[in-house]
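haha ok so turns out i had the wrong file open the whole time. this is the CORRECT one, sorry everyone. sequence first:
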Amino acid sequence: MTRYVVFSHGKESGPWGVKILALAAVARDLGWAVESIDYQGMEDPSERVLKLLTVGADLGFAPILVGSSMGGHVATAATVGLNAGGLFLMAPAFYMPGYESLTPRPNAARVEIAHGWRDDIVPVDHSIRWARTHRATLHLLDTDHQMQDCVEELSALFRRFLVAVGAPKG
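then structure:
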């Protein structure tokens, strides 16, 4: 049975940005199939969640969901409907002003977050709060919201994450 890693990009990026390309290479190297959802032109996070649920339902058993910024919110919200095998988040847009009550709860056995100390878009304190509340593993990096300068470190964290959730053998 094919197992998938499904990526959800942020509000202002695309489905195959630098981070997703790097993490997709890690996933493929470990024997995972990869899908990256294109949310461009979709501003409403709820519409993005519905799209992820629709695509994810066709992918089979317990996909690994990966999300960046708004994509982190979307991936987390979709864990309930997709019975996610794991959740890996980068600077997830949690507890944003006006949307605090919409911050989703995770439904995945393993949840890890990477967030930059210098993030000026989504405060790092939001990930600290969320990780504490949901007992998620939190990796704090010396980077900004885009995390472009630490793609190698993110790739190493993601590799360890996939191995821990039981990456399929190629």
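The radius of gyration is 14 Å.
again sry for the mixup
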